Amino acid sequence: MTQEYDDKAKTIALLEKLSNAHGPSGFEEEVHYLVKEEVKDLGEVRGDSVLNLYVNRKENKEGKPTVLLDAHMDEVGFIVQSINSNGSINFLTLGGFVPTSVAAQKVKVRNKDGQYLLGVIASKPPHYMSADERKKAPEISDMQIDVGSTSAEETKDLFGIRLACPVVPDVTFERISKKEDYFIGKAFDCRIGVAAEVLTLQALAGKDLDVNVEAVFSTQEELGTRGIKVASKNLKADLAICFEGAPADDTFGDPSQQQTVLGKGPMLRHFDSTMLTHPGFQAYALKIAEEKGIPVQEGVRTGGGTNGSVLHLAGQGIPTIVIGVPVRYIHSHYGIACYEDYMHARDLALAIVENITAEEISAMHYTNS
């Protein structure tokens, strides 16, 4: 069960605000300042030159081990590469997209004045396609963004669009009819993790713990975990918890192989292409989840990667777990996520931080073996 003190409307409003915010990799300013406003009273708050946001909890005291919380603020998006003579815009991806999910979608282009302008990713009508074209899967390089311009000069001078302007999916957060605890929105990877991390910090306010808690809201994860690489040089931690929006697998494949199903709790990933999760910390997280009645799922993945790939190798190594909130159709315009999974991710992190001791953390480092 989720914590009794929650104001459900507020916890959903937080996720809605973060999902609707625009922050593709490298352009996370809007999200940065939204999060800063949410955590400004919880401790010392600072940033760095790549827009990472750090929170040093005000109740922290010297001499205690430190647990680091992390979630990345960026979303997958696009960037203007060039402008064609007819006014259309060539673009590159910021993060991984499957091209078939991109064509014919609405987007917003941020112009030189910071305004977001509506556009559509052009889709060639079938009337003008050859038989071979209809069979061919589109590539990003074959697509352009149309903002309603008729010339390069108009795109540049009237619309104020230049090279390297960021582009985001044009999607508004909505609750699903007849099932209002399920949401459709963009950027749940990883704004749903950002929201869960904010809620964790808020729930810890004023509490005396056996550990110190520091938090980072990191940037540019979708471009190769760049923000957390900077942050890992500025922080020292004894444990790390990464929140993520994890790709759900419950709408395809063999049900017996599904490990990230909506409504069954956050997923604790044992293995992916970039990280073998610390067995001791993973076992502790699973034990706490069972003791507290928090539903969790376990995953072993052939691909994927998170900021945990950087943190678990930082310094002399930081025991790290990843708490993944299931999200259907990740890395596309529209994701679907579930309220209970979101809240149980927060509950699990909270239970770990509130219960773990210095002795248990020391045992995970094997320094006395």
Approximate helicity band: 25-40%
The pLDDT mean sits at: 95
Q: How many domains?
A: 2
Q: Treating each run of at least 4 consecutive H or I residues as one helix, how many helices?
A: 10
Q: Report the C-alpha radius of gyration, rounded.
A: 21 Å
Number of strands: 17
CATH topology of the largest domain: Aminopeptidase
What is the N-to-C order of secondary-structure elements (H for helix, E for strand)? HHEEEEEEEHEHEEEHEHEEHEHEEHH
State the end-to-end CA separation.
38 Å
CATH architecture classification of the largest domain: 3-Layer(aba) Sandwich
CATH superfamily of the largest domain: Zn peptidases
Sequence stretches where pLDDT stays below 50 over 5 or more residues: none
In terms of structural class, how would the helical and strand content be classed? alpha+beta
What's the level 1 CATH class of the largest domain?
Answer: Alpha Beta
* Shape label: globular
SSE map:
Layout: H1 8-20, H2 29-39, E1 43-47, E2 53-57, E3 66-72, E4 77-83, E5 89-94, E6 106-110, E7 116-121, H3 131-135, E8 145-146, H4 152-158, E9 166-169, E10 174-176, E11 179-185, H5 188-204, E12 212-218, H6 226-234, E13 239-247, E14 267-271, H7 279-292, E15 297-300, H8 308-311, E16 320-327, E17 335-338, H9 339-355, H10 358-365
Parallel strand pairs: 3-12, 3-13, 13-16, 14-15
Antiparallel strand pairs: 1-2, 2-12, 4-5, 4-9, 6-7, 6-9, 7-8, 10-11, 11-17, 14-16
